[in-house]
Amino acid sequence: MFRAILKTQWKWTRVAVLVCVVIAFALPMISLALASETRTARQFIGVMQGWGVAYAIAAATLGLVVAVAAWSSDHRGHHVYALSLPVARWRFVLLRFGAGLLFLVPPVVGLAISALIVSNDHAIPAGLHSYPFALTLRFAFAALVSFGIFFAISAATKRAAAVILGLIALVVVADVVTDAAGLHAQILERAVTYTFAYPGLLSVFNGRWALIDV
Fold this sequence. Notes:
Number of domains: 2
Number of helices: 9
Largest sheet: 2 strands, antiparallel
Radius of gyration: 20 Å
Order of helices and strands: HHHHHHEHHHE
Shape: flat
């Protein structure tokens, strides 16, 4: 059963996964190429840290596309295929989830290989250190968090998923707008803080993501 689900799910997900592999592999290379044009170690670190947000976005996007692809066929078929299978619903969901977890692996491996290549490059200024394994583990965990959240959301109806995503976006946008307007919205600030700051659910996406640092 798992092999069949894995095979069919791969057909829906493979293009997105392959694109994510290319992006994950390219990020360390691009950041190093741009950082190599700097003149000082401080500027080098600044460029590498500036590209940190790209790793967070890539991890979040990877989890999102794999999670959405896992349920896209079921939504189109109104879950007739899933309900016709001689397995319990909870087991079918676990099989879908397990297949999706495997699809997170190729981009993570691609990032790990690229990060190791960059870490051994002679363009890195003396005195700086590379953290390929820490970056890869953080990327993998962030992708897992994103996948878990969007997998649960996508398992619901399209309307329910849209409502949940809309509420999350509304809270973030409202906090940005009130902050820009100079208004003090303590409830919104706390909501965003508890979500994106440690030990918030999405705190893994915050902070430093630099491959090369002091």
